[in-house]
Amino acid sequence: MDYPYTIPYPQIGSLLGEHEISVLTQLVNSGESLSGGRWRAEFERRFREHLGVPYALSLTSGTVALEIAIHLLDLNAGDEVIATPQTYKASVQPLLNYPVRVRFCDVEADSLNIDPARMESLITGRTRAIVLVHYGGLPCEMDTIMAIARRHGITVIEDCAHALGAEYRGRKPGALADIGCFSFHSSKNITTLGEGGMITLFDRSLAERVDRIRSNDADAVYHEKVRSIGPSTSAHPWMMHPGYAYTHGCTRLRYAGTNATLAEPNAAVGVVQMAKLDRMVRRRHQIAGAYTDVLSRYPGVRIQQQSGPIRHAHHLYTFFVDPASGMQRDRLVSRLDALGVQMQLRYFPMHLLAEWAARGHGVEECPVAERMWFRQQVNLPCHPGATDAQVEQVVSRLDTVLRQEVRSRPIAAATSGDTEGAAQ
Question: Where are the alpha helices (DSSP H) in 94-162?
Fold first, then answer.
């Protein structure tokens, strides 16, 4: 029997409704500019207060946030950056634009987050930054990572695209390192009408650079000078060009700038979505709890986890199949998909992509990430729009497939491999 997908992988990862429609109607009827104004300022204010950071600047996408964050590193030829291989390509793709060496750091088998135990061995005198992702919404071991980074004078960029709504030891991702980057794509924990992003910082000078870049001003080094352009004029100051043309010269151009400001309709929806965030994350926890309950009955599978007082945002729900138990990941995933549970595995190891292979990366560079991706990792659909009935169907079909896997195990694995598989 062919099943329709019980819970399709979400096209929208948050809940949209009458409140979003109401604020958009209000804005359109107001006659105010749709390009930027009070809604953007309010969205950024709420975001700052939610995270507890001094600066939060909204942008057109999470990818743009990452591009600007990496630009702020002021990388030069021969510099090195440590990055996670277990992420979406936007986390590391901007680094392809720079003549730098990227050292992919392997991940932890239990969390799929960058492994601090391996990180320090990759640091050299040319290491400028670490780019990490809180995989699936599970925070990395940030105290350890930041201690290493501070010891070596390295900047840390958090890709928080999955992690809005998470907590790490009482603090929130985006406020745990030097720079935080968020995405409000349709699939994320909140959305700003399909696309949007935010960059969070503690450094005022960096925040000023971001504001110039997103506002079509050049990111440059300026110096004061005696005015030498044009005749004197009685025009009002606000009629004159707002840049530094009359007062400054340019010593160094770092970036030409672009228009990356979040539009007012997107920001207005972001304000409404922020008010819903806690409720939507609670729903993700309920769904994750139902999945964990059924998985806990079976040896040979284990869930994604990290030690310490951590709140998972559950952007993704991840568990692992231990091949030593006799279970086969690909067979399990295919059976679930055939029963109507739409499966997508996230994400293919970055160091194995063709563009990174062209930079000299390849197989066995990150053996844990490779093993988890090709043999063990499973992602189940988990989003607040799922109904109780849909979740119950997923749980039932997951239970069915796990029973099938247990029955199909080789005798040796069934009698001697369970304890070892459950412990790994």
Answer: 116-119, 142-152
| Secondary element (H or E) of residue 399 | helix 388-407
Q: Measure Cα distances from 1 to 4, 18, 338, 340, 403 in Å.
A: 10, 38, 9, 10, 19
Q: What are the distances in angstroms from CA 305 to CA 112, 115, 284? A: 9, 13, 16
- For residue 320, give the nearest of 293, 299, 335, 339 by alpha carbon: 299
SS3 377: strand
Q: Are 199 and 59 in contact (CB under 8 A)?
A: yes
Could you report how far apart the first and last alpha carbons of the chain are, in Å?
36
> Mind spelling out the 3-state secondary structure of 35-52?
CCCHHHHHHHHHHHHHHC
| CA gap 352, 362 in Å, rounded | 5
Amino acid found at 353: L
Q: Domains plus CATH for the chain?
A: 18-216+258-267 (3.40.640.10), 219-255 (no CATH), 277-423 (3.90.1150.10)
Q: What is the pLDDT of residues 136-186, one digit of tens each?
A: 999 999 999 999 999 999 999 999 999 999 999 999 999 999 999 999 999
pLDDT digits (tens, 9 = 90+) for 82-115: 999 999 999 999 999 999 999 999 999 999 999 9
CB–CB of 324/413 below 8 Å?
Answer: yes
